[in-house]
Write a structure and sequence with these properties.
This protein has helices at residues 5-41, 46-62. It is mainly alpha-helical. The protein has one domain (5-62).
């Protein structure tokens, strides 16, 4: 299968974007973990942390996360 220069450029562009997204996800994951650790240090137990995360998941499912505020 031959790949044109244009197709190759598009593939490279998509891969670079994908790699950037992975870095964003890793950074966000680290920030979330830090927040959860801070809450734990403030006395929030695992059940409370799970409830908080479940509420966020519910908001995502309802479309409230990512909407303009």
């Amino acid at each position: 299968m031959k790949v044109t220069k244009r197709q190759l450029r598009q593939i490279v562009k998509e891969e670079v974007q994908y790699a950037g997204n992975l870095e964003d996800v890793a950074a966000a994951s680290a920030a979330i973990e830090e927040i959860l650790n801070d809450l734990w240090d403030l006395g929030v137990q695992n059940d409370g942390l799970k409830a908080l995360l479940n509420n966020i998941i519910d908001d995502i499912d309802r479309g409230f996360v990512g909407e303009p505020t």
